[in-house]
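Components:
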Amino acid sequence: MESETATPVKGRPREFCVDKALAEALHVFWAKGYDGASMTDLTEAMGITKPSLYAAFGNKESLFHKALDLYESEKLEYTRAALQQPTARRVAEYYLRGGVDVHAAEGKPQGCMGLISSLACSPEAESIKADVIRRRSSSQRALVERFEQAKREGDLPAHIDAEGLTSLLYAILQGITVQAGAGATRAELERLVDTSLALWPSA
Amino acid sequence: MESETATPVKGRPREFCVDKALAEALHVFWAKGYDGASMTDLTEAMGITKPSLYAAFGNKESLFHKALDLYESEKLEYTRAALQQPTARRVAEYYLRGGVDVHAAEGKPQGCMGLISSLACSPEAESIKADVIRRRSSSQRALVERFEQAKREGDLPAHIDAEGLTSLLYAILQGITVQAGAGATRAELERLVDTSLALWPSA
DNA sequence: CAAATTATATACCGCGCGTTATGGAAAGCG
DNA sequence: CGCTTTCCATAACGCGCGGTATATAATTTG
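Structure:
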Protein backbone atom coordinates (compact mmCIF):
# COMPACT_ATOMS: atom_id res chain seq x y z
CA MET A 1 0.00 0.00 0.00
CA GLU A 2 2.53 2.61 1.15
CA SER A 3 4.73 3.27 -1.83
CA GLU A 4 7.45 5.19 -0.03
CA THR A 5 8.90 4.38 3.35
CA ALA A 6 10.89 7.64 3.48
CA THR A 7 9.24 10.89 4.53
CA PRO A 8 9.00 13.11 1.46
CA VAL A 9 6.85 15.64 3.33
CA LYS A 10 7.89 18.92 4.85
CA GLY A 11 7.74 19.79 8.49
CA ARG A 12 8.75 17.91 11.58
CA PRO A 13 8.47 14.16 11.10
CA ARG A 14 6.25 12.22 13.51
CA GLU A 15 8.09 10.26 16.14
CA PHE A 16 5.86 7.19 16.32
CA CYS A 17 4.65 4.46 14.00
CA VAL A 18 0.99 4.90 13.11
CA ASP A 19 0.42 1.18 12.58
CA LYS A 20 2.03 0.26 15.89
CA ALA A 21 -0.03 2.88 17.69
CA LEU A 22 -3.22 1.62 16.04
CA ALA A 23 -2.40 -1.93 17.10
CA GLU A 24 -2.05 -0.74 20.70
CA ALA A 25 -5.33 1.15 20.46
CA LEU A 26 -7.00 -2.00 19.16
CA HIS A 27 -5.75 -3.87 22.19
CA VAL A 28 -7.27 -1.29 24.55
CA PHE A 29 -10.62 -1.16 22.75
CA TRP A 30 -10.71 -4.94 22.66
CA ALA A 31 -10.10 -5.24 26.39
CA LYS A 32 -12.35 -2.42 27.58
CA GLY A 33 -14.86 -1.72 24.86
CA TYR A 34 -15.50 1.61 23.22
CA ASP A 35 -17.01 3.36 26.22
CA GLY A 36 -14.68 1.75 28.71
CA ALA A 37 -11.55 2.85 26.89
CA SER A 38 -10.70 6.39 27.91
CA MET A 39 -8.51 8.73 25.94
CA THR A 40 -5.97 8.48 28.73
CA ASP A 41 -6.00 4.67 28.49
CA LEU A 42 -5.46 4.94 24.76
CA THR A 43 -2.72 7.55 24.73
CA GLU A 44 -0.78 5.78 27.48
CA ALA A 45 -0.95 2.45 25.67
CA MET A 46 -0.08 4.03 22.34
CA GLY A 47 2.81 5.97 23.85
CA ILE A 48 1.72 9.28 22.37
CA THR A 49 0.02 12.43 23.60
CA LYS A 50 -3.54 13.47 22.92
CA PRO A 51 -2.77 16.11 20.28
CA SER A 52 -0.71 13.55 18.37
CA LEU A 53 -3.58 11.10 18.53
CA TYR A 54 -6.08 13.65 17.27
CA ALA A 55 -3.75 14.76 14.49
CA ALA A 56 -3.14 11.20 13.33
CA PHE A 57 -6.55 9.58 13.83
CA GLY A 58 -9.16 12.33 14.03
CA ASN A 59 -11.04 11.60 17.21
CA LYS A 60 -11.95 8.68 19.43
CA GLU A 61 -14.74 7.44 17.18
CA SER A 62 -12.72 7.40 13.97
CA LEU A 63 -9.87 5.75 15.85
CA PHE A 64 -12.26 3.02 16.88
CA HIS A 65 -13.46 2.43 13.33
CA LYS A 66 -9.85 2.11 12.15
CA ALA A 67 -9.10 -0.26 15.02
CA LEU A 68 -12.15 -2.31 14.08
CA ASP A 69 -10.92 -2.47 10.49
CA LEU A 70 -7.63 -3.85 11.75
CA TYR A 71 -9.42 -6.28 14.08
CA GLU A 72 -11.51 -7.68 11.26
CA SER A 73 -8.65 -7.94 8.82
CA GLU A 74 -6.34 -9.63 11.31
CA LYS A 75 -8.47 -11.49 13.82
CA LEU A 76 -11.53 -12.30 11.77
CA GLU A 77 -9.68 -13.24 8.62
CA TYR A 78 -10.40 -16.86 9.41
CA THR A 79 -14.08 -16.39 8.57
CA ARG A 80 -13.18 -15.97 4.94
CA ALA A 81 -11.22 -19.19 4.94
CA ALA A 82 -14.10 -20.87 6.76
CA LEU A 83 -16.52 -20.24 3.91
CA GLN A 84 -14.28 -22.17 1.53
CA GLN A 85 -14.31 -25.39 3.51
CA PRO A 86 -15.70 -28.31 1.52
CA THR A 87 -18.75 -29.13 3.64
CA ALA A 88 -21.20 -27.22 5.82
CA ARG A 89 -19.98 -29.12 8.85
CA ARG A 90 -16.43 -28.15 8.10
CA VAL A 91 -17.50 -24.54 7.68
CA ALA A 92 -19.15 -24.61 11.09
CA GLU A 93 -16.19 -26.30 12.71
CA TYR A 94 -13.81 -23.75 11.21
CA TYR A 95 -16.00 -20.93 12.46
CA LEU A 96 -16.32 -22.28 15.98
CA ARG A 97 -12.75 -23.38 16.54
CA GLY A 98 -11.50 -20.17 14.98
CA GLY A 99 -13.75 -18.22 17.32
CA VAL A 100 -12.32 -20.00 20.31
CA ASP A 101 -8.78 -19.43 19.06
CA VAL A 102 -9.28 -15.71 18.64
CA HIS A 103 -11.47 -14.92 21.63
CA ALA A 104 -9.94 -17.16 24.25
CA ALA A 105 -6.29 -16.80 23.32
CA GLU A 106 -3.79 -16.39 26.12
CA GLY A 107 -2.21 -12.98 26.40
CA LYS A 108 -5.06 -11.41 24.48
CA PRO A 109 -8.26 -9.79 25.72
CA GLN A 110 -10.98 -12.34 26.41
CA GLY A 111 -14.12 -11.91 24.35
CA CYS A 112 -15.16 -10.19 21.16
CA MET A 113 -14.26 -6.58 20.60
CA GLY A 114 -17.34 -5.82 18.55
CA LEU A 115 -19.70 -7.47 20.98
CA ILE A 116 -18.16 -5.72 23.96
CA SER A 117 -18.34 -2.33 22.29
CA SER A 118 -21.82 -2.66 20.84
CA LEU A 119 -23.85 -4.19 23.64
CA ALA A 120 -23.78 -1.70 26.46
CA CYS A 121 -23.20 1.50 24.58
CA SER A 122 -23.75 5.02 25.75
CA PRO A 123 -26.00 7.29 23.68
CA GLU A 124 -23.03 8.86 21.89
CA ALA A 125 -21.82 5.41 20.85
CA GLU A 126 -24.91 4.47 18.87
CA SER A 127 -23.00 4.87 15.62
CA ILE A 128 -20.43 2.39 16.94
CA LYS A 129 -23.19 -0.11 17.58
CA ALA A 130 -24.67 0.49 14.16
CA ASP A 131 -21.29 -0.09 12.52
CA VAL A 132 -20.74 -3.37 14.33
CA ILE A 133 -24.24 -4.60 13.48
CA ARG A 134 -23.81 -3.66 9.84
CA ARG A 135 -20.52 -5.56 9.55
CA ARG A 136 -22.01 -8.56 11.34
CA SER A 137 -25.07 -8.82 9.13
CA SER A 138 -23.02 -8.59 5.97
CA SER A 139 -20.86 -11.52 7.01
CA GLN A 140 -23.97 -13.39 8.13
CA ARG A 141 -25.42 -13.08 4.66
CA ALA A 142 -22.37 -14.79 3.18
CA LEU A 143 -22.86 -17.68 5.57
CA VAL A 144 -26.52 -18.10 4.60
CA GLU A 145 -25.51 -18.39 0.97
CA ARG A 146 -22.82 -20.90 1.88
CA PHE A 147 -25.35 -23.11 3.66
CA GLU A 148 -27.83 -22.86 0.79
CA GLN A 149 -25.06 -23.98 -1.50
CA ALA A 150 -24.45 -26.88 0.88
CA LYS A 151 -28.10 -27.89 0.61
CA ARG A 152 -27.87 -27.89 -3.17
CA GLU A 153 -24.69 -29.94 -2.97
CA GLY A 154 -26.36 -32.40 -0.64
CA ASP A 155 -24.15 -32.13 2.41
CA LEU A 156 -26.89 -30.45 4.39
CA PRO A 157 -30.39 -31.98 4.73
CA ALA A 158 -33.04 -30.25 2.63
CA HIS A 159 -35.34 -29.71 5.61
CA ILE A 160 -32.79 -27.47 7.34
CA ASP A 161 -33.48 -23.74 7.40
CA ALA A 162 -30.28 -22.08 6.18
CA GLU A 163 -31.10 -18.75 7.79
CA GLY A 164 -32.03 -20.36 11.07
CA LEU A 165 -28.86 -22.42 11.01
CA THR A 166 -26.80 -19.30 10.35
CA SER A 167 -28.44 -17.46 13.23
CA LEU A 168 -27.78 -20.48 15.41
CA LEU A 169 -24.13 -20.68 14.45
CA TYR A 170 -23.69 -17.00 15.17
CA ALA A 171 -25.53 -17.37 18.45
CA ILE A 172 -23.13 -20.12 19.50
CA LEU A 173 -20.19 -17.95 18.48
CA GLN A 174 -21.57 -15.04 20.43
CA GLY A 175 -22.11 -17.30 23.41
CA ILE A 176 -18.52 -18.46 23.13
CA THR A 177 -17.23 -14.91 23.26
CA VAL A 178 -19.55 -14.07 26.15
CA GLN A 179 -18.37 -17.05 28.13
CA ALA A 180 -14.76 -16.33 27.24
CA GLY A 181 -15.24 -12.82 28.62
CA ALA A 182 -16.76 -14.32 31.75
CA GLY A 183 -13.65 -16.36 32.38
CA ALA A 184 -14.44 -19.71 30.81
CA THR A 185 -11.36 -21.82 30.20
CA ARG A 186 -10.31 -22.90 26.79
CA ALA A 187 -11.09 -26.50 27.65
CA GLU A 188 -14.66 -25.59 28.58
CA LEU A 189 -15.13 -23.74 25.32
CA GLU A 190 -13.76 -26.67 23.38
CA ARG A 191 -16.27 -28.97 25.04
CA LEU A 192 -18.94 -26.52 23.97
CA VAL A 193 -17.68 -26.67 20.40
CA ASP A 194 -17.42 -30.46 20.45
CA THR A 195 -20.99 -30.76 21.68
CA SER A 196 -22.21 -28.32 19.04
CA LEU A 197 -20.56 -30.32 16.30
CA ALA A 198 -21.94 -33.56 17.73
CA LEU A 199 -25.42 -32.19 17.15
CA TRP A 200 -24.67 -30.83 13.69
CA PRO A 201 -27.04 -32.24 11.06
CA SER A 202 -25.56 -34.85 8.76
CA ALA A 203 -26.73 -35.36 5.22
CA MET B 1 -41.34 -10.30 54.42
CA GLU B 2 -42.66 -6.90 55.50
CA SER B 3 -45.00 -7.66 58.38
CA GLU B 4 -46.66 -4.24 58.59
CA THR B 5 -47.86 -2.18 55.66
CA ALA B 6 -48.58 0.89 57.81
CA THR B 7 -45.80 3.22 58.91
CA PRO B 8 -45.25 2.64 62.61
CA VAL B 9 -42.06 4.68 62.52
CA LYS B 10 -41.54 8.21 63.61
CA GLY B 11 -40.46 11.01 61.37
CA ARG B 12 -41.67 12.27 58.02
CA PRO B 13 -43.05 9.44 55.88
CA ARG B 14 -41.49 8.90 52.48
CA GLU B 15 -43.53 10.11 49.55
CA PHE B 16 -42.78 7.34 47.06
CA CYS B 17 -43.19 3.60 46.82
CA VAL B 18 -39.88 1.79 47.13
CA ASP B 19 -41.01 -1.18 45.06
CA LYS B 20 -42.31 1.01 42.25
CA ALA B 21 -39.11 3.01 42.25
CA LEU B 22 -37.02 -0.17 42.14
CA ALA B 23 -39.06 -1.45 39.21
CA GLU B 24 -38.33 1.79 37.33
CA ALA B 25 -34.65 1.52 38.18
CA LEU B 26 -34.66 -2.05 36.86
CA HIS B 27 -36.09 -0.80 33.59
CA VAL B 28 -33.30 1.78 33.22
CA PHE B 29 -30.50 -0.68 34.11
CA TRP B 30 -32.01 -3.21 31.73
CA ALA B 31 -32.10 -0.76 28.85
CA LYS B 32 -28.73 0.93 29.38
CA GLY B 33 -26.61 -1.41 31.47
CA TYR B 34 -24.89 -0.57 34.73
CA ASP B 35 -22.36 1.88 33.36
CA GLY B 36 -24.72 3.40 30.83
CA ALA B 37 -27.37 4.20 33.42
CA SER B 38 -26.51 7.49 35.07
CA MET B 39 -27.83 8.62 38.42
CA THR B 40 -29.77 11.31 36.58
CA ASP B 41 -31.35 8.68 34.31
CA LEU B 42 -32.30 6.68 37.36
CA THR B 43 -33.69 9.47 39.54
CA GLU B 44 -35.72 10.88 36.66
CA ALA B 45 -37.24 7.51 35.85
CA MET B 46 -37.88 6.75 39.50
CA GLY B 47 -39.41 10.16 40.12
CA ILE B 48 -37.28 10.88 43.16
CA THR B 49 -34.27 13.01 43.98
CA LYS B 50 -30.77 11.77 44.52
CA PRO B 51 -30.73 12.08 48.33
CA SER B 52 -33.95 10.06 48.46
CA LEU B 53 -32.37 7.40 46.31
CA TYR B 54 -29.27 7.22 48.47
CA ALA B 55 -31.33 7.08 51.66
CA ALA B 56 -33.52 4.28 50.34
CA PHE B 57 -31.08 2.17 48.35
CA GLY B 58 -27.57 3.02 49.53
CA ASN B 59 -25.71 3.84 46.36
CA LYS B 60 -25.74 3.00 42.68
CA GLU B 61 -24.11 -0.37 43.11
CA SER B 62 -26.44 -1.66 45.83
CA LEU B 63 -29.39 -0.32 43.84
CA PHE B 64 -28.20 -2.42 40.91
CA HIS B 65 -27.92 -5.57 42.99
CA LYS B 66 -31.46 -5.06 44.26
CA ALA B 67 -32.69 -4.44 40.73
CA LEU B 68 -30.94 -7.61 39.62
CA ASP B 69 -32.68 -9.52 42.41
CA LEU B 70 -35.99 -8.25 41.11
CA TYR B 71 -35.02 -9.06 37.53
CA GLU B 72 -34.16 -12.63 38.41
CA SER B 73 -37.24 -13.22 40.52
CA GLU B 74 -39.61 -11.75 37.95
CA LYS B 75 -38.06 -12.20 34.54
CA LEU B 76 -35.97 -15.31 35.04
CA GLU B 77 -38.51 -17.17 37.12
CA TYR B 78 -39.24 -19.32 34.09
CA THR B 79 -35.87 -21.03 34.43
CA ARG B 80 -37.07 -22.72 37.58
CA ALA B 81 -40.16 -24.01 35.82
CA ALA B 82 -37.98 -25.11 32.91
CA LEU B 83 -36.00 -27.54 35.10
CA GLN B 84 -39.19 -29.39 35.99
CA GLN B 85 -40.16 -30.22 32.43
CA PRO B 86 -40.41 -33.95 31.85
CA THR B 87 -37.67 -34.38 29.24
CA ALA B 88 -34.35 -32.75 28.43
CA ARG B 89 -35.74 -31.54 25.12
CA ARG B 90 -38.67 -29.93 26.88
CA VAL B 91 -36.29 -28.30 29.33
CA ALA B 92 -34.29 -26.84 26.45
CA GLU B 93 -37.39 -25.69 24.64
CA TYR B 94 -38.71 -24.03 27.79
CA TYR B 95 -35.39 -22.28 28.30
CA LEU B 96 -35.09 -21.02 24.74
CA ARG B 97 -38.69 -19.93 24.18
CA GLY B 98 -38.74 -18.33 27.61
CA GLY B 99 -35.56 -16.50 26.76
CA VAL B 100 -37.09 -15.13 23.59
CA ASP B 101 -40.24 -14.12 25.46
CA VAL B 102 -38.31 -12.18 28.08
CA HIS B 103 -35.56 -10.65 25.99
CA ALA B 104 -37.45 -9.79 22.82
CA ALA B 105 -40.72 -8.65 24.34
CA GLU B 106 -42.37 -5.56 22.90
CA GLY B 107 -42.35 -2.53 25.13
CA LYS B 108 -39.44 -3.91 27.12
CA PRO B 109 -35.70 -3.37 26.71
CA GLN B 110 -34.18 -5.71 24.14
CA GLY B 111 -31.52 -8.04 25.46
CA CYS B 112 -30.39 -9.39 28.78
CA MET B 113 -29.80 -7.04 31.68
CA GLY B 114 -27.05 -9.13 33.20
CA LEU B 115 -25.21 -9.60 29.94
CA ILE B 116 -25.42 -5.92 29.05
CA SER B 117 -24.15 -4.87 32.45
CA SER B 118 -21.38 -7.43 32.77
CA LEU B 119 -19.72 -7.45 29.38
CA ALA B 120 -18.18 -4.04 28.91
CA CYS B 121 -17.81 -2.92 32.46
CA SER B 122 -15.67 -0.10 33.72
CA PRO B 123 -13.06 -0.85 36.35
CA GLU B 124 -15.38 0.23 39.15
CA ALA B 125 -18.03 -2.21 37.93
CA GLU B 126 -15.94 -5.34 38.33
CA SER B 127 -18.02 -6.39 41.31
CA ILE B 128 -21.14 -6.11 39.14
CA LYS B 129 -19.57 -8.44 36.62
CA ALA B 130 -18.54 -10.85 39.33
CA ASP B 131 -22.06 -10.90 40.73
CA VAL B 132 -23.62 -11.65 37.36
CA ILE B 133 -21.10 -14.41 36.66
CA ARG B 134 -21.70 -15.95 40.07
CA ARG B 135 -25.47 -16.03 39.58
CA ARG B 136 -25.08 -17.43 36.08
CA SER B 137 -22.79 -20.26 37.10
CA SER B 138 -25.05 -21.30 39.96
CA SER B 139 -28.03 -21.66 37.63
CA GLN B 140 -25.83 -23.42 35.11
CA ARG B 141 -24.95 -26.02 37.70
CA ALA B 142 -28.61 -26.84 38.19
CA LEU B 143 -28.98 -27.40 34.47
CA VAL B 144 -26.03 -29.77 34.34
CA GLU B 145 -27.62 -31.87 37.04
CA ARG B 146 -30.93 -31.83 35.19
CA PHE B 147 -29.26 -33.14 32.04
CA GLU B 148 -27.40 -35.82 33.94
CA GLN B 149 -30.71 -36.91 35.39
CA ALA B 150 -32.08 -37.01 31.83
CA LYS B 151 -29.23 -39.31 30.81
CA ARG B 152 -30.06 -41.65 33.70
CA GLU B 153 -33.72 -41.55 32.73
CA GLY B 154 -32.83 -42.34 29.16
CA ASP B 155 -34.25 -39.33 27.36
CA LEU B 156 -30.77 -38.09 26.52
CA PRO B 157 -28.21 -40.29 24.75
CA ALA B 158 -25.44 -41.57 26.99
CA HIS B 159 -22.69 -40.27 24.75
CA ILE B 160 -23.81 -36.66 25.27
CA ASP B 161 -21.64 -34.48 27.51
CA ALA B 162 -24.02 -32.88 30.01
CA GLU B 163 -21.67 -30.02 30.79
CA GLY B 164 -20.98 -29.34 27.15
CA LEU B 165 -24.69 -29.42 26.40
CA THR B 166 -25.36 -26.98 29.21
CA SER B 167 -22.68 -24.61 27.96
CA LEU B 168 -24.16 -24.91 24.50
CA LEU B 169 -27.68 -24.16 25.67
CA TYR B 170 -26.44 -21.13 27.56
CA ALA B 171 -24.44 -20.01 24.57
CA ILE B 172 -27.55 -20.15 22.40
CA LEU B 173 -29.45 -18.21 25.03
CA GLN B 174 -26.70 -15.63 25.20
CA GLY B 175 -26.67 -15.40 21.43
CA ILE B 176 -30.44 -14.86 21.47
CA THR B 177 -30.10 -11.94 23.85
CA VAL B 178 -27.22 -10.49 21.85
CA GLN B 179 -29.19 -10.67 18.63
CA ALA B 180 -32.29 -9.29 20.33
CA GLY B 181 -30.21 -6.33 21.48
CA ALA B 182 -28.94 -5.91 17.93
CA GLY B 183 -32.46 -5.56 16.61
CA ALA B 184 -33.38 -9.08 15.54
CA THR B 185 -37.11 -9.58 15.13
CA ARG B 186 -39.05 -12.03 17.20
CA ALA B 187 -39.68 -14.15 14.09
CA GLU B 188 -35.94 -14.42 13.42
CA LEU B 189 -35.28 -15.50 16.98
CA GLU B 190 -38.03 -18.09 16.79
CA ARG B 191 -36.43 -19.54 13.67
CA LEU B 192 -33.20 -19.72 15.62
CA VAL B 193 -34.97 -21.61 18.40
CA ASP B 194 -36.75 -23.93 15.96
CA THR B 195 -33.47 -24.79 14.29
CA SER B 196 -31.79 -25.39 17.63
CA LEU B 197 -34.53 -27.78 18.67
CA ALA B 198 -34.39 -29.54 15.29
CA LEU B 199 -30.78 -30.44 16.06
CA TRP B 200 -31.47 -31.47 19.65
CA PRO B 201 -30.33 -35.01 20.35
CA SER B 202 -33.09 -37.58 20.64
CA ALA B 203 -32.79 -40.68 22.76
C1' DC C 1 20.46 31.82 7.69
C1' DA C 2 15.54 32.88 7.89
C1' DA C 3 10.72 31.31 6.58
C1' DA C 4 7.31 28.02 6.36
C1' DT C 5 5.41 23.75 7.93
C1' DT C 6 4.36 19.98 10.85
C1' DA C 7 4.71 17.33 15.36
C1' DT C 8 5.12 17.47 20.20
C1' DA C 9 4.38 18.94 25.18
C1' DT C 10 1.80 21.28 28.71
C1' DA C 11 -1.86 23.05 30.37
C1' DC C 12 -6.48 23.94 30.14
C1' DC C 13 -11.70 23.95 28.72
C1' DG C 14 -16.68 22.79 29.64
C1' DC C 15 -19.32 19.02 31.00
C1' DG C 16 -21.45 15.18 33.26
C1' DC C 17 -20.38 11.80 36.52
C1' DG C 18 -21.44 9.59 41.48
C1' DT C 19 -21.93 11.42 45.82
C1' DT C 20 -22.91 14.48 49.70
C1' DA C 21 -23.54 18.73 52.77
C1' DT C 22 -27.07 21.97 54.12
C1' DG C 23 -31.54 23.80 55.34
C1' DG C 24 -36.28 23.31 55.59
C1' DA C 25 -40.76 20.44 55.70
C1' DA C 26 -43.66 16.77 57.75
C1' DA C 27 -44.60 13.41 60.94
C1' DG C 28 -44.66 11.10 66.16
C1' DC C 29 -43.77 11.98 71.10
C1' DG C 30 -43.58 14.56 75.61
C1' DC D 1 -46.40 23.66 72.08
C1' DG D 2 -41.34 22.30 71.66
C1' DC D 3 -38.27 18.21 70.58
C1' DT D 4 -36.71 14.62 67.94
C1' DT D 5 -36.66 12.05 63.89
C1' DT D 6 -37.04 11.25 59.22
C1' DC D 7 -37.51 12.76 54.52
C1' DC D 8 -37.35 16.17 50.61
C1' DA D 9 -35.20 19.92 47.72
C1' DT D 10 -31.30 22.70 46.22
C1' DA D 11 -26.93 23.19 45.42
C1' DA D 12 -22.52 22.02 45.46
C1' DC D 13 -18.30 18.88 45.71
C1' DG D 14 -14.14 16.59 43.47
C1' DC D 15 -13.10 14.03 39.57
C1' DG D 16 -12.34 12.21 35.08
C1' DC D 17 -14.20 12.61 30.63
C1' DG D 18 -13.43 13.94 25.31
C1' DG D 19 -11.37 17.56 23.09
C1' DT D 20 -8.33 21.79 22.29
C1' DA D 21 -5.40 26.37 22.53
C1' DT D 22 -0.85 27.75 22.98
C1' DA D 23 3.87 27.57 22.71
C1' DT D 24 8.04 25.10 21.42
C1' DA D 25 10.94 21.67 18.84
C1' DA D 26 12.27 19.57 14.47
C1' DT D 27 12.28 19.39 9.84
C1' DT D 28 12.17 21.01 4.40
C1' DT D 29 12.28 24.92 1.37
C1' DG D 30 14.09 29.43 -0.30
